[in-house]
Amino acid sequence: MMYPTKTALILLDKLAPWQKVNVSAFLTGGLMHGYPEMAGEPYKDNDDNFYLAMIREPVFVYGADSQTIRRTFERARSRGMAFSIYTRPLFVTNNDADNHASVAATPAAGLDIVGLGLHGDRKRVDKIVNGLKFLA
């Protein structure tokens, strides 16, 4: 099935494996908050046990260097897209308040972005991620 929307994560390709997984989880959580329609239906097994819903469509994960992530960030901003970010300083904070304070203290041009999360119209997201390669 081809969805009219697309979900894409762009991760700094030089991150450690645990960082890539962690950033992906945070970005996806942010997207689900901003786009609740991303959630599918809850699951139920044959024994009538219920499980929480997951994202209803595939998530495409791209890898990029710092310059390419910055370019993608600017593309998304210039198109008025609402998106999630993860910055390098968030690896050393240990709570949401400190995360917010870190981002709030930094102008957009100074954000050391290591991850972006996008969700929206498929064609719009495709234009923003144009030229990126899937994370290997």
From TrEMBL:
Gene3D superfamilies: Bit1. InterPro entries: DUF2000 (IPR018988), Pep_tRNA_hydro_II_dom_sf (IPR023476). Pfam families: DUF2000. This is DUF2000 domain-containing protein.
